[in-house]
Q: What sequence folds into this?
C-alpha cells in the first residue's frame, strides 16, 4: 500500500500525466556538429514517472521533511560548527548587484562585488592577525592544501628542499595528514600528553632539519587551548619550519586571540562554519587562506588588490603557486560571511566566542558525572566525552548516537578524535538557547539511564525514523545507489 502522506513518485505514475509545460521553441534548431558514437545514443525513451504537478510537489515536499538541517533542530556535530545561518545573509546574497553578475564581466562593471571581496579579505586579515588573505580556496581541506603548497614554495625558493615532513598531532583532523600527503609531504605524528595537549618533549623529538611545518588547530580537536603555543612556535621556527593554523576551531577565540599573534605563518578559515555560510547539504564551503608578509608573494593568483580608486586582479605574481580555483572563490558563501561580519561587528564576534565557550562548558559539566570526561579542565567551544562506562553495559557510542535520532536530535561526532576511546565529540555553538541545551542534556542523561536499566532499547535504536538500524558493514561495502521499483 502506498503511503499517502508521502506519495512515491514511481508508484503513482500513470501514462499520460504531465507535470510541466514548456513554451514553444522560439529559436532555430541547430545541429551541434558533434557525431556521437552509436553506443551513446539512447534507443528507447527513459522510463521516467508520469505524474501531475500536484503529485510531484507533494513528492519533493515529502522528501524535504525527511531531511535534517540546522533549521530543523539541534545539530551538535563536534568540529563541524553547525551554527544557525542568519537569513539576512540570504537577503543580501539575492541582491541583483550580487546575484546577477558574471565572473567574465569586465572588472570595471563589478566594482561593488570586488569592493566586498576586498573588504572581506581585510576583515579576515584583521581577525586572524595575518598580512594578506586570498579568498580562492573552495573549502577547508582545499585551504589546507593551498597553505601547504605556499610553505613548500617558500622552502624551495630558499633552496631548502630537504624539508619534506609535516608534523601533525595525533588528535588532528583527518584532513591534515591527507593535505600534507597531497602537497607532497610526509606526515609525522606528535603525541598528546595526559592533559590533551601537544607533548612538547615529543615535539622536540620529531622536529628537525627535515621539518617543513607543524599543522595545528588551537583550540585543538579535544576542545582544549594549547597553552604552550608560543613555546611550540619557537621550537618550530628555530628549526626553520613554519607554523600552519587549521582554522576549523576559530569560533572559540574570535576577538580574544589571533593566530598571527600566536606565531602562525599561514592560516586557513572555514567561512561555512565560523562565519555562518550554509554547508553540508545546504551549500558549498569556502576556505580562504591568510599569510604573513614573507609568504604573501606565494599567494594563489590573481590577487585582488586596490589601485587608486579601482579594485583590480593582479596577475603579475611571478612567485605565485598559481590559480587554485576558477572565479576567485565561492562568491556566494564569501558574501554571506561578509554580511555576518558586518552585522556582528568586532564586539559581536567577541560575544560569539564567549557564548560558544559558555555553552560548551555548561553542557560538559552537566554530563561529566554520567559519561567519562577524559580531560576535566575547562574546554573552549567543544568537548569530548567517552562512552566507556556505557560500553561496559553493552551500549556502544554508536548505539547512543542512533538512540538520539529517536528524540529528534542529530548525533554529535562519534569515534573522533581517534585517541579517545568511544568518543562523543559535542559542539553546541553559540546560537542555541539554554532550553535547547537543557533538552539535549536531559536526553543524554536519559539514554545513559536506559543503558543501565534497558540496554536493548538503545542497542536496537533508532525506532521512530523511516530508516531503522542498518547493517553498517553491508551498507558501506555494497551500497544500493539507484532506485529499485517493487
A:
Amino acid at each position: 500500500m502506498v503511503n499517502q502522506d508521502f506519495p512515491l513518485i514511481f508508484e503513482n505514475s500513470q501514462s499520460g500525466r504531465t507535470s510541466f509545460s514548456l513554451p514553444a521553441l522560439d529559436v532555430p534548431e541547430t545541429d551541434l556538429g558533434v557525431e556521437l558514437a552509436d553506443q551513446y545514443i539512447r534507443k528507447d525513451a527513459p522510463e521516467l514517472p508520469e505524474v501531475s504537478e500536484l503529485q510531484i510537489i507533494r513528492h519533493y515536499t515529502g522528501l524535504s521533511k525527511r531531511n535534517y538541517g540546522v533549521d530543523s533542530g539541534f545539530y551538535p556535530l563536534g568540529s563541524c560548527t553547525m551554527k544557525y545561518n542568519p537569513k539576512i545573509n540570504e537577503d543580501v546574497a539575492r541582491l541583483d548587484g550580487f546575484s546577477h553578475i558574471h565572473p567574465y564581466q569586465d572588472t570595471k562593471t563589478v566594482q561593488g562585488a570586488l569592493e566586498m571581496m576586498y573588504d572581506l579579505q581585510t576583515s579576515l586579515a584583521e581577525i586572524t592577525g595575518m598580512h594578506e588573505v586570498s579568498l580562492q580556496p573552495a573549502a577547508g581541506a582545499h585551504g589546507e592544501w593551498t597553505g601547504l603548497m605556499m610553505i613548500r614554495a617558500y622552502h624551495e625558493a630558499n633552496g631548502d628542499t630537504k624539508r619534506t615532513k609535516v608534523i601533525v598531532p595525533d588528535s588532528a583532523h583527518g584532513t591534515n595528514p591527507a593535505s600534507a600527503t597531497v602537497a607532497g609531504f610526509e606526515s609525522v605524528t606528535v603525541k598528546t600528553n595526559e592533559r590533551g595537549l601537544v607533548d612538547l618533549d615529543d615535539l622536540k623529538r620529531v622536529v628537525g632539519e627535515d621539518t617543513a611545518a607543524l599543522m595545528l588547530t588551537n583550540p585543538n580537536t579535544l576542545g582544549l587551548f594549547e597553552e604552550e603555543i608560543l613555546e611550540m612556535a619557537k621550537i618550530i621556527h628555530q628549526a626553520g619550519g613554519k607554523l600552519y593554523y587549521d582554522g576549523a576551531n576559530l569560533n572559540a577565540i574570535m576577538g580574544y586571540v589571533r593566530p598571527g599573534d600566536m606565531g602562525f605563518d599561514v592560516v586557513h578559515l572555514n567561512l561555512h562554519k565560523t562565519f555562518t555560510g550554509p554547508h553540508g547539504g545546504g551549500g558549498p564551503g569556502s576556505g580562504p587562506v591568510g599569510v604573513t608578509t614573507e609568504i604573501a608573494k606565494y599567494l594563489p593568483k590573481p590577487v585582488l588588490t586596490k589601485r587608486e580608486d579601482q579594485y583590480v586582479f593582479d596577475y603579475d605574481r611571478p612567485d605565485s603557486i598559481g590559480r587554485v580555483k576558477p572565479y576567485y572563490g565561492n562568491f556566494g558563501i564569501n558574501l554571506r560571511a561578509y554580511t555576518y561580519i558586518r552585522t556582528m561587528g568586532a564586539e559581536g564576534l567577541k560575544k560569539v566566542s564567549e557564548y560558544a565557550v559558555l555553552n560548551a562548558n555548561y553542557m560538559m559539566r552537566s554530563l561529566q558525572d554520567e559519561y567519562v570526561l577524559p580531560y576535566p579542565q575547562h574546554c573552549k567551544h567543544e568537548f569530548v566525552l567517552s562512552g566507556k562506562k556505557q560500553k561496559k553495559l553493552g551500549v556502544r557510542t554508536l548505539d547512543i548516537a542512533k538512540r538520539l535520532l529517536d528524540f529528534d536530535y542529530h548525533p554529535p561526532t562519534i569515534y573522533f578524535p581517534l585517541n579517545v576511546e568511544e568518543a562523543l565529540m559535542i559542539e553546541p555553538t553559540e546560537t542555541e538557547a539554554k532550553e535547547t541545551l537543557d533538552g539535549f542534556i536531559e536526553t543524554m542523561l536519559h539514554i545513559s539511564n536506559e543503558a543501565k536499566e534497558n540496554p536493548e532499547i538503545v542497542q536496537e535504536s533508532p525506532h521512530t525514523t523511516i530508516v531503522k538500524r542498518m547493517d553498517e558493514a553491508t551498507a558501506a561495502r555494497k551500497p544500493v545507489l539507484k532506485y529499485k521499483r517493487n
Observations:
- Residues 352-467 form a domain with the Aspartate Aminotransferase, domain 1 fold (CATH 3.90.1150.10).
- The longest strand covers residues 211-216.
